[in-house]
What does this fold into?
Amino acid sequence: MRPLKPVASLFIFLSAALLLWIQTRFTIPHLSQSTGHEPIFYWFLVGGLGVFLPLIILAWILLVREEAFKSPQWWKSRLFFRKMTQEDWLWTISSIFVIGALSAALLKGLQAVYGPVDHNPPFMHFTPPETGQLGFLALWFPYWILNIMGEEILWRGVMLSRQALAGGRQVWLWHGAGWAVFHIAFGWKLLIIMLPILFILPYVVQKRQNTWIGVWIHAAINGPSFIAITMGWL
It folds into this structure.
């Protein structure tokens, strides 16, 4: 495994950010306007298959170039998908609560200065009926799996460990900054609200050397928040 230097890391994050920007600014609006379906329907489709699946493919290409698959324990040894210990769970659960509290505080701060803040960027807009959007959950779930695993396999499993070889203990800082770059298409207000997870998650994963922690934190923050918005609870 070779070190992944900041310039190479930034190139990967920028390339993924450009892909996300193109899909959300052009592909999804065009499909939505052409068919009359709400943007979020195409976010599930285009986001899952056109953004996060390519992240998994890129991770696979990088692992092939490393010849990582030659190890019989590559899932644990190379990608750091290790069995969760009691301490790992403590870090995970604590991080989820800290991220949730900090994000809520940032949201309140933005609302105090700018008024109501839309939780969803334009490409995720939809009009929930009073009874909620239960039908969307069936479409959302496979997208959600691609989203969480696509990002965690590439960003944390493949890249963070290689970045640590080049950047040492503080690598989570520029890893988090790169992850923020990837989310530029979400808009600056939502990006501010996301700052806690963008930096706390890679810090904990690097500290504990366990990618499953990133999966659980990412899933716990991403999933319930979407369901709450869909059901009209937020």
